[in-house]
Amino acid sequence: MVTRLLQPGQVLVGKWQKNSYRILQPLGQGANGEVYLAQSIMDKQEVALKISSNSHEIAGEWRLLRQLSAVSHALPKPIELDDAQHAPLYFYSMERIAGQPLTKVHQHLRQTEIDRLFAAYLQVLHEFHQAGFAFSDVKPENLLVESGTDGRLQARVVDIGGVSAFGRSVRQYTPTSDRAYFGLGTRSADAMYDLVGLSLVFLQLQQPLPVHRMGRVEDRQRYVFTALQLMPKTRRKTVIDAILHGQVQSAATALSLFHSAKSNKKRQTMPKPARQKKSMATSPSPRSKKKKWDWTERLMWFSLTTAAIATLAAWTVFLL
């Protein structure tokens, strides 16, 4: 049984800001703490709380969230940092993202919609990279899909606990989206680490990873390139293929390739009408068309012939 820092129904009171939050339910748990859905007692708004017993980790994440949320709107907006009043706990509150994990919604999406989400996540990674950081822990649970006010799908990301400055070792990772686990590179924070991780996530959306057959690096690599071949011919496949073959080195280049790639839409053309072959039975020519005689026509010609014969006989007798 998982032991949690807080239970639903408890009220967390801030020591310095004096704001109170009622815990509604747990949202997730990581190496740096736990995340809860909570309601502000003051304005009844729902928020997400990141809580930990490590003040240093919470303070570091808070600073990073404030820095990166200023350059990427995909992250939740930070609200406040505080200590718990009646317990040795430290927390910060942030925007509650009302989205669903990518793994839960992709089955209901068209291939073009999944393509657009892939490009949107590339844009998020580009924003992180421009600031000098790798998101690092690119796993499906951290990639949320939210419906915007205009009805369009928006790419959001959560959990910055694994964010690492370029050149550092990756702090947190998930094996199924870890470049090193698949033998495709090192476990160091750089742009390619994120790009490979995102590619692996989207590969596994189409072809689930057979975990029981992933014992060797060779097996994992075989899975990657087999799954790539089985992907539908879409714009994201073009980009993922280039990433996994080392032809793309940055999110900016990946985005450029995505927008220049063409999806596999077959052109709709009107079928040419089939040429009809002329048939003697169905379309007889005038020469081959045999005239049909009915009984009245036969009687008429018989009468005329008889009359002619009779007249000729009469003239013969008269002349003799």
From TrEMBL:
Binding site for ATP: K50
UniProt keyword annotations, A-Z: ATP-binding, Kinase, Membrane, Nucleotide-binding, Transferase, Transmembrane, Transmembrane helix
Stretches assigned to the Protein kinase domain: 21-320
Keyword field contains Kinase: yes
Compositionally biased spans, kind Basic residues: 262-278
Region (Disordered): 262-291
Enzyme class of the recorded protein, top EC level: transferase
Transmembrane segments: 299-318
An MF annotation (GO) of this entry: protein serine/threonine kinase activity
EC nos: 2.7.11.1
Entries under PANTHER family matching the protein: OVARIAN-SPECIFIC SERINE/THREONINE-PROTEIN KINASE LOK-RELATED (PTHR44167), PHOSPHORYLASE KINASE (PTHR44167:SF30)
Name under which the protein is recorded: Serine/threonine-protein kinase
Organism this protein belongs to: Alicyclobacillus tolerans
